[in-house]
Amino acid sequence: MKELLYPPFLQWEVTSECNHNCVHCYNYWRKDTEKNIDIGDHLSIAKKIVERHPVSVVITGGEPLLAFDSIKSSLRLLKENGISLSINTNAVLVTDEIAEFLSELNVSALVSLPCSEPSICDEITNVPGSLDRISKGVKTLLKHNIRVTVNMVVSKKNLDYIYDTAKYAKEVLGISRFFASRVSKPIN
């Protein structure tokens, strides 16, 4: 058995860049950071993570799928070293190719679903048509047998839609795991 070093659970922000601009996002600094991290940098970080022998790593961002091509070899390295993986995503960029790769590595997904009401979802993400694109991504993940959990960050904008969003997640998307978490005040 490998020696367990700390921390046993890591969250790795592979990019601060995002294709949504959610009003509740804690990554208020994302526009001020360098956008392109190359494959070598990600692989170097992954090797350092492996040295620590964590139990699991959550891949997060920004939107981690914006860096998908850069992190593929890193994800494979982490998995080959017995590390459990999950990804926090808005699912908009999920394709069959991405879902198939994640499925091969047994990666689970936590998907941000701001609201089941399209206009409120768009208002929160600041992206038109976001509910349809999130839903399409979730369905693609499920088609490839990826365990998906939905998280709704609740604010005054979507408070009245918690039940409807949970129902949408279950009945329309086929999700059995739904979380609603309260929005945090930004540090800045």
Structure commentary:
The chain has 188 residues and is α/β, with parallel strands linked by helices. 36% of the residues lie in helices and 19% in strands. The protein has six helices and six strands; from the N terminus they run βαβαβαβααβαβ. Strands 1-2-3-4-5-6 form a six-stranded parallel β-sheet, with helices on one face. The longest helix has 14 residues, at 39-52.
Features:
188 residues; alpha/beta; six-stranded parallel sheet; 6 strands; 36% helix; globular
Question: How would you summarize this macromolecular structure in one to three sentences?
Answer:
It contains six helices and six strands. The chain has 188 residues and is of the alpha/beta class.
For the biggest sheet, the summary is: 6 strands, parallel
pLDDT < 50 runs, ≥5 residues: none
Rounded to the nearest angstrom, the radius of gyration is 17 Å
Query: Could you tell me the strand content as a percent range?
Result: 15-25%
Tell me, what's the shape?
Answer: globular
The helix content is 25-40%
Mean pLDDT: 90
SSE string = EHEHEHEHHEHE
The tally of beta strands, per DSSP, is 6
Structural class: alpha/beta
Number of helices: 6
Strand order of the largest sheet: 1-2-3-4-5-6
**How widely separated are the two ends?**
43 Å
What is the strand and helix layout of this fold?
Elements lengths: L8 E7 L23 H14 L3 E6 L6 H13 L3 E6 L6 H9 L3 E5 L5 H8 L4 H14 L4 E7 L7 H10 L6 E5 L6
Parallel strand pairs: 1-2, 2-3, 3-4, 4-5, 5-6
